[in-house]
């Protein structure tokens, strides 16, 4: 192979010319996500001097130098004051810096810069961001009743208090995620929906239900789910409204996330309703909390068609009323009878 031969020649040439060797920065490693209060965050900068000697390793946060390691100076290690940076000197060295007690101020862009000695003074650097997260102090579901009957309206709100950034919230009802419709259109369900319309059948599964679903987004941030539908697999899509709110900024600058859920209890919820709210911040944090609430059948209202079954109801009907209903019954029977003859 011509290419390989050429490559070998180039490598040989390079090996024979000392000036062609350079200091290389192999890797910079900064933990991308940390939580407030984290101790012992390790920043690493791995380099290869390729025969040159090291002059210095410097670390910067947002272009402010906070760490300098110079092997030929005394002391070798110097630390400079930068907001949010507490260096553990004893455990930091040439290729590693250990930070303690991270705070929100520790977030930023970290840069490692390695310089070679004279005569070349070659310098290589690499950067990486670190995000510091404050996890929510508390989360809860508000507004759930101790029990529901079929037909009741469930109106609950999930709160996740005091985090940075604001946590994202999602709702699940009996293990089924309640999704805002426009997100559903946006990803894989959108494809299913197309299939559904072409096939004209239920093969699209849950996606098919969105065909006729009206939805809107109002000023208060209400998104409406599509109408309930039964696909061929008799999978029930919950009809629900998600109420989204802007995160509330607390006096200490932390944020509270709020997501409301409103839906009507359906016969298939009979027995138990499981409401689950999940709160998460990127890949750093997630927490899920749930409430299990008993669901009873609708109690029959004690009136009209069922009056003869309810002792309560019939005792409250005055006798005139009873007589009227009995009269009406016979009258209609008589009419029916005479029409048949
Ligand atoms: C961050 O953590 C420190 C120590 O754990 C704590 O004192 C401080 O209140 C926390 N800050 C926030 C904003 O949660
Ligand atoms: C870091 O936290 C430790 C205990 O967790 C504490 O003793 C120390 O004073 C803190 N250091 C700084 C610089 O906040
Ligand atoms: C849900 O509850 C909130 C307050 O708890 C109330 O403001 C809102 O009107 C309720 N919505 C419905 C549809 O019941
Ligand atoms: C029966 O009637 C009484 C008094 O009117 C009422 O307090 C009670 O709830 C009723 N019971 C039923 C099952 O409707």
Automatic annotation (TrEMBL):
Residues 18-122, 136-171 form the Ig-like domain. Keywords: Signal. Residues 199-212 have a biased composition (Gly residues). It comes from the Eukaryota. InterPro entries: Ig-like_dom (IPR007110), Ig-like_dom_sf (IPR036179), Ig-like_fold (IPR013783), Immunoglobulin_dom (IPR013151). Residues 192-214 are annotated as: Disordered. Residues 1-22 form the signal peptide. The keyword Transcription does not apply. Gene3D superfamilies: Immunoglobulins (2.60.40.10). This is Ig-like domain-containing protein. It comes from Tigriopus californicus. The lineage of its organism: Eukaryota, Metazoa, Ecdysozoa, Arthropoda, Crustacea.
């Amino acid at each position: 192979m011509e290419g390989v031969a050429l490559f070998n020649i180039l490598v040989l040439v390079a090996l024979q010319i000392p000036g062609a060797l350079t200091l290389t920065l192999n890797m910079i490693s900064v933990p991308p996500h940390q939580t407030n209060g984290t101790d012992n965050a390790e920043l690493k900068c791995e380099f290869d001097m390729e025969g040159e000697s090291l002059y210095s390793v410097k670390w910067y946060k947002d272009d402010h130098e906070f760490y300098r390691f110079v092997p030929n100076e005394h002391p070798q290690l110097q630390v400079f004051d930068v907001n949010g940076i507490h260096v553990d000197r004893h455990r930091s060295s040439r290729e590693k810096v250990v930070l303690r007690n991270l705070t929100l101020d520790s977030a930023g862009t970290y840069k490692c810069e390695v310089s070679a000695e004279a005569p070349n003074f070659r310098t290589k650097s690499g950067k990486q961001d670190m995000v510091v997260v404050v996890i929510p102090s508390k989360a809860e579901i508000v507004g759930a009743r101790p029990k529901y009957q079929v037909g009741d309206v469930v109106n609950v709100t999930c709160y996740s208090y005091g985090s940075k950034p604001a946590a994202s919230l999602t709702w699940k009802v009996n293990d089924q995620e309640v999704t805002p419709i426009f997100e559903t259109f946006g990803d894989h369900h959108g494809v299913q929906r197309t299939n559904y319309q072409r096939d004209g059948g239920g093969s699209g599964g849950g996606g098919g239900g969105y065909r006729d679903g009206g939805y809107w987004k109002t000023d208060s941030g209400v998104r409406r789910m599509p109408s309930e539908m039964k696909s061929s697999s008799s999978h029930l899509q919950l009809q629900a409204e998600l109420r989204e709110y802007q995160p509330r900024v607390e006096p200490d600058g932390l944020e509270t996330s709020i997501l409301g859920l409103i839906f009507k209890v359906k016969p298939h919820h009979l027995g138990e309703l499981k409401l689950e709210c999940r709160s998460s911040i990127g890949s750093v944090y997630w927490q899920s909390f749930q409430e299990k609430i008993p669901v009873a059948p609708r109690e029959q209202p004690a009136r009209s068609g069922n009056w003869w079954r309810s002792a309560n109801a019939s005792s409250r009907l005055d006798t005139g009323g009873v007589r009227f209903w009995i009269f009406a019954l016979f009258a209609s029977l008589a009419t029916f009878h005479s029409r048949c003859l």
